[in-house]
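Late entry, written up from scratch paper. The run itself happened at the end of the previous shift, but nothing got recorded in the book at the time, so transcribing now.
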Amino acid sequence: MTAGQVLALIDTPDLDQLLAQAKATLASAKANYDIATLTANRYGTLVNQQAVSQQVADQSAADAAAKKAVMDANEANVRQLEAMEAFKQIVAPFDGIVTLRNTDVGALINAGSTAGQELFEISDLHRVRIYVQVPQAFSSALHPGLKATFEMPQYPGWKFDATSSPRRMQ
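Output as recorded:
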């Protein structure tokens, strides 16, 4: 698997419904703001012609400003829910292999601020750390950069190259 590859998609019907509702509320708030702005602009023109009082024009301008604040709050709510929607897709953070899956298709995934159970364990096997017990009689021959090979029962006939690390030579 490569970095950015999709590992899982989480269905969130409640969140989807909240986002749809927030978008509808935003559309309504935008329509209210638009008509309030048009009305305020018209009253501003009529004040210059002395067809309406300054009081009416000021109230109309204040109404437009209040409706703009409501629209801005609804826009923020939509952005917040869209940000939460981004978490529906679980992607691989780096190239590697999925070594453990702690969930199944259809399982309930709980959201919240507490650390929950990990869904996947991913390992980068380009570099693997191996710990080896060395008899004391051979320990004087060890030094950083020492080359070795090893075999694993899971891969019969394969030989893997290794190099000793200076951090563990103590």
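The longest strand covers residues 97-101.
(Scratch paper discarded after transcription.)
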